[in-house]
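One-letter codes give the sequence; the fold follows as tokens. Both lines appear below.
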Amino acid sequence: MPLSRSLSMTSLSGVLPSWEDDELPVEDLLLFEVAWEVTNKVGGIYTVIQTKAKITADEWGENYYMIGPYFEQNFQTQVEACEPPNPTIRKAMNTLIENGCQVHFGHWLIEGSPYVILFDIASAAWNLERWKGDLWQTCNIGLPYHDREANDSLILGSLIAWFVNKPNVICHFHEWQAGPGLILSRSRKIPMATVFTTHATLLGRYLCAGNTDFYNNLGRFNIDKEAGERQIYHRYCLERAAVHCAHVFTTVSEITAVEASHMLHRRPDVVTPNGLNVKKFSAMHEFQNLHSTSKARIQEFVRGHFYGHLDFNLEKTLFFFIAGRYEFSNKGADIFLESLSRLNYMLRVRNDVTVVVFFIMPAETNNFNVESLKGQAVRKQLWDTAHTVKEKFGKKLYDALLKGTIPDMNSILDRDDFTIMKRAIYATQRHSLPPVTTHNMLKDSTDPILSNIRRIGLFNARSDRVKIIFHPEFLSSTSPLLPMDYEDFVRGCHLGVFPSYYEPWGYTPGECTVMGIPSVTTNLSGFGCFMEEHVSDPAAYGIYVMDRRFRSADDSCNQLTQFMFSFCQQSRRQRIIQRNRTERLSDLLDWRYLGRVCVSAVPLCFHHRNVPLEPGKGLKGNIVSKNSRGVGHFMKVQESLGGLQH
């Protein structure tokens, strides 16, 4: 039966093309969504496909399948194995299995329970050299033997091209790792419509990490030279070929669309902003109570971490945080640290507020450091001592009141009680400053965050009004140090700070928004641009948008410092009102609405998919051959490849 359009998909007036009737144009249409991060958490794409799964599954029902690589641990913990209900899928899987390639099928245990088809890369690795030859013969792109990620992506792509051979199929490919599947499918003229989404261009990420003035020089880069010097030319070729082979090319924000136009030489057909499953985070009027509960748990950790130096009032202490992949410049940690140094000076001069800042960025460590664990042990010991004395005090007070007398406070506690309390106080004495990191860092001397902390001199001294805690590991409720899930931790903080220089979308400020936590973002992030476009005064709703595109680094630092200082000057009541206003923006980020933009790519696929490749050329004729510049430089994808975009 034909699939009807879901009533849950709300149209964005004036933005999306309309269909002529209420049904999809092809009966029995299958949608395959291909990504390296299906059941495999690596970065932000995992969040995209996981949160979008329910709205897509509701729209497509049993005609929706996700495709990705098989990892045994992930499959055992996240997937419920079952038999494919569709006989065509079952037949295609059996064909691969009979040829020695293992394929796994099941329900991914997330909201929406989508079907997943996972290919075992290792079981098909014996075909790698043959498939590398096919890729070379097809489009003159060679892959070096030492780049395992690129080789694995080719194996996955070859299996997908082998697997998907049914008409009336739409394949949506995410990022360059899925690119080989698109390229090979198109080269073999498999009758399917294709969508390719880039969440960040390969070269853009590398260039920004190298401290280049990226956005002001987009048109001046020698792209082939830059990719070659970074030894990613073969990956860049795969990405660019996939972009030009796709019927529809999409990206996640306008800022990334501009970037893709220069880096990949094709303007995206549709911009599909990333959403969230807001229902998962929704707490209605309870979200303020959840903030208080989670804040109390963070305060307990802070009491232990700063034992012996807890001379600041926790009721006047604000919790800021930054989280994400450890890309020091791209994520704006450099700007953030410099701004914290300036904020520290301003708070020491003009305010009695203390700010504790958490850096949640995974880095190489070998374990928790002793001082951090000792702090939590001392806190627990103090709590147990206080609880014991309180029980004894309470019993004596209760007995005295029953007798109708007011007890002598000096007689309620005996000498032993005072001795116990004094010993507990002496145990909190500390001859060193509270540590700035919770773990033993493997590269302590060269770590960018620690090096900059040494430069600005924020060592958690008593005189500092800004305290820093670097937690180089993702949060977990099973941690013996800070036993909180990321969601609970975010709810307990007051402000998320994400001054990114390179952030094609930015899920972290979006997650803050749906949980009612104000955040700082930039006009170089997709999220920041989206908010500036759709909200007339984002700052009034707790979304502070820094200008990192048209201001110098020093001016951006001053702007961020002023944002944070203004936030510190708010009263508790003002912060509560602002959290209410922030949470009201949740619906703007809901997949129920943004998913409609993704669906708009479907009619475009059908508009373009019957346009053939240029006769007599195929793919290879659109890519020039050998570049003699060495291992890192393979085949140059020319502008003529643009002839394949339809």
In short: The two ends are 28 Å apart (CA to CA). The mean pLDDT is 86. Residues 47 and 507 are 8 Å apart (CA to CA). The longest helix spans residues 370-402.
